Fold this protein.
Amino acid sequence: MMIGSDLLSHGDLLFFSGSTSWSKLIQKVTGSEWSHVAIALKLNEYPGMMVLESKEGCGVRLIPLSAYKNYKGQIWRAVDRDARGNKKGLNKAVKWGLNKLGNPYNWTEIEELAQTFLFKTKRTLHISHRSFICSVFVWEFMKQWGYQLSAIPLESPGDISKSQFLIDWTQIY
């Protein structure tokens, strides 16, 4: 199946619903249909659509959307209703995100989510501005863009998907 990159615009959010055991575990622990969230970018320096994300095993990275051509699951894009006109904010967010390339994945946050799920303990946020899980990375990106978001980072792709500013959902893969 071909990824519908022609359906994407610079700054769209990408939501992934994977079928691997890791994806299913994330979905179960977070109570969400989504296992990953990222940002679609069209940058002059790169041909095609790119994906800016924080991914387990590699941290913050920028990869071609085509790298997901064998993804086991679905990929949806969501367009926000207000941000298209805020090019200055998007440029600020992109610069912030690209400056985070190479930053590590936040495994402490994953351990906290697992403990909360397994032991029904109270959630303690360990937010780092140096390491990120995917949803906190996107939350920070959106704040840089100029969104008025909650003071507490959204903990999962599902939390972000419920944001009132997202409209026009389209499956791209």
The CA atoms of residues 12 and 128 lie 24 Å apart. The chain is about 30% helix and 20% strand. The first helix runs from residue 21 to 30.
